[in-house]
Specification:
Elements: H1 2-14, H2 18-27, H3 41-73, H4 78-93, H5 106-116, H6 118-135, H7 138-156, H8 160-176, H9 178-188
């Protein structure tokens, strides 16, 4: 029963979108009507600048930390820890109270990984920043790291549970980024008339 409660609370917590409420509070507007239409830090940053980006990233990362911390504190299984994190990310991407239109879930997922495996989080962050320094495109850098995270986890962790959890999280993030991936592929693939 506690495990199910953690997952349900995780989904509901995920739906509390930092970026949406921050823009609503400051500009009295719906951030989803601008830019990419997402509630995440990148889109909020387009409207509110660096402060908005940082505050949204911190808020989304914090909610990603909370449910895994709670599950670990309550001595729940690895399965519950990861299902709780996945529920938070799903709630962030598809929030009930916002008509299932939220952010992309990267900062939220990263917040949870910081709690579950700080070393893995540090490596993923370093690789993302390294790729960003090369490409100057955060979306491409992030997607490469999302795709590579199960492989990196395999080499860094001896835990099959952690690898399955990260793989499941990766699948959710890839679904959330479907439109971005299709745009990138559309730009990379020449049109045939």
């Amino acid at each position: 029963m506690i495990d199910i409660l953690i997952i349900v609370v995780g989904y509901l917590l995920g739906g509390i979108s930092s970026g949406y409420y921050l823009v609503r509070f400051i500009n009295h507007e719906d951030v989803r009507k601008y830019g990419s239409g997402a509630t995440g830090a990148t889109n909020v940053g387009r409207m509110l600048g660096a402060k908005g980006f940082i505050l949204t990233s911190l808020g989304d990362g914090l909610k990603g930390c909370l449910i895994p911390l709670l599950a670990i504190f309550l001595e729940r299984s690895d399965l519950t820890v990861f299902l709780g994190l996945i529920a938070v990310v799903i709630g962030h991407v598809w929030p009930l109270q916002l008509g299932f239109r939220g952010g992309k879930g990267v900062a939220t997922a990263f917040g949870g990984i910081v709690v579950i495996d700080p070393q893995l989080a540090l490596v993923l962050f370093a690789i993302t920043m390294g790729l960003w320094a090369i490409t100057r495109k955060f979306a491409i850098s992030g997607l490469i790291v999302i795709l590579g995270s199960p492989i990196i986890t395999f080499y860094m962790s001896g835990s099959i549970n952690e690898m399955i959890g990260i793989l499941s999280l990766t699948m959710v993030l890839l679904i959330a980024h479907k439109e971005n991936i299709l745009k990138m592929l559309g730009k990379a693939t020449p049109r045939r008339d």
